[in-house]
Structure formats: C-alpha cells, structure tokens
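note to self: dont lose this again. the chain is below, predicted strucutre after it. 289 aa total, dont forget to put it in the shared folder this time
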Amino acid sequence: MTTTAYARLDERTPGPSPAAYRAADDLAAVREQWGDLLAAINRPPAAEWPPRDSRAHIDGHLAEQAADEEQLDEQSVGRMPLVLREHPAPLNLAALDAALDVETSLFDLADQVAEYAQRPVRTGHDAYGRSTRDEEDATDPARWHVTSYRDAGPADAVAHGSRAYGLHWAALWIAGRLLGEDTDGDLFAIVPARVLDQAAAVARRARRTVEQALGRDGRITLLADPCPVCEGELTAHTRAGGEPYVTCSTGETCEAPAPLDQGRRTWRGADLVALYVALDAARRRAAEA
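---
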C-alpha cells in the first residue's frame, strides 16, 4: 500500500544531479562544523576576528587548554538534540539560535523527504480481517521515523522518532536520499526533482547559518595589531568552507617567517597560531614598557 505522496515513476530522475551533490556537500559541511557550533554556545561571544574555531585553537596554545576544549566539543556532539532539551542561561545566545534554527530545519526537511521518497510501512489483515502493521518493517533502523503524538490522558505522549538521534543522523540520512543511495530495494525511491531543489536550498541555508555563526562567512577584517616583524598592516580573511588566513601589507620585503602568497606574507594553519603567539608577546612587551 502506498500514498500519493510517495514518488511516482514519472517523477524520478535518472541519477544524482549536480544539485544533489552540492546539497550533500553542504550537509557534510554542517556536520563537520556542528561540534564547533555546539561548543560556541557554551562560550561568551567572540570578537569578529578570529573565527571562533581559530580563537579557541590559538587560546589553547597560549593557555595550554586545547585538549580540554577538544574533549568538550566531542562531548557536545553526542548530546540530546537541542530542540529536545532546555537551555538555561547559554553564554552565546546567537550561537544557540543558529543551532536551533539549523537543527529544526534539517529535521523538518527529513520529514518532508521521507514523505516523498520512503515507502510507507507495510500493512495487511489478520485472520479476523483486522488491519495490521508489519512491525519489523515499521522499526527498520534505515527508516526516518517522524515525530508521533498520541493522547495519553492528562498529557499527550510524544515519540520523537529519528529526531532523537540528532543532527548528524538527519544530515546523513537526507544526503543518502538526495544521492539516490539504497534505492535497489523497495524502501527508498529517488527523491522527486522539485523536492530535491527544496532540499538543496535548505541545506545551503543551513550551511550559511552555521558558518555565519562561527564567523566563517567570508569576512575581511583589519587587525588592530601591526605585523610583529615589520609593523605592516595585517588583514584577516575568512572564507566559507575554507581556512582563515592573515596577510601583511608590506609585501615581499617583510621578513616574517611565513610563506609568500601573491606577494604578501600569509599566515595559515599552524603559521596563524605562531602569528598570534607573536602578537600576544608584542602586546605583553608593550604593556611592560
């Protein structure tokens, strides 16, 4: 038995489209940065530069706390979904709002994709002609289980379904459906093109929300501190989906221990940490002078 929402053969596309691959990339980016966003909820709002992940990394080197922060991030990823628990006095309300928005949008998207690309639970009749449900099919762990409600007297009982497994599972499950995985059986169908387009838009918006909350959305910031070697002007850059970096305005004549990129000393990765250690040392010397 099927419903009209379940994809018809004439609605199916021949294979993963470029939009499906882009959406899967966006969903992967959300998953990869989710721990950073959860950790940001428990930290005071950071300055515009550096991005929160870089600031945490740099502060870890300066204060020798990187290991503790990494452990905190790993613990955050495995917590109950944000939409299913309370949030007393978060240190960073903007990060919490962003995380709640992303989590809710992906959960709702999974519900929608399941409606169009997941076979309804098999039903039948028992020896007395009563309608029955295939419980093994209903509890298949590959399914996306939507939230269900039932009257339980004074209060309604709520079964949160697959939402209880968190954003990581939702993002992986959605990506699998958009890419047409596991369609050789009868549980899943190819996602209709119109639903795929909607899903791609939601995934892109979710990624932008996460990256904006973490300060990774393509900002250019003039730093207050000069280059610790030549006193040139330092400019910080963030790129969506890319690592942050800092450039010195002096050019090739700057003798800072950083690679040249398009004629400018450029700090990335471990070099960026070294730059901030040098800047911190320069501030300390200036304060002591």
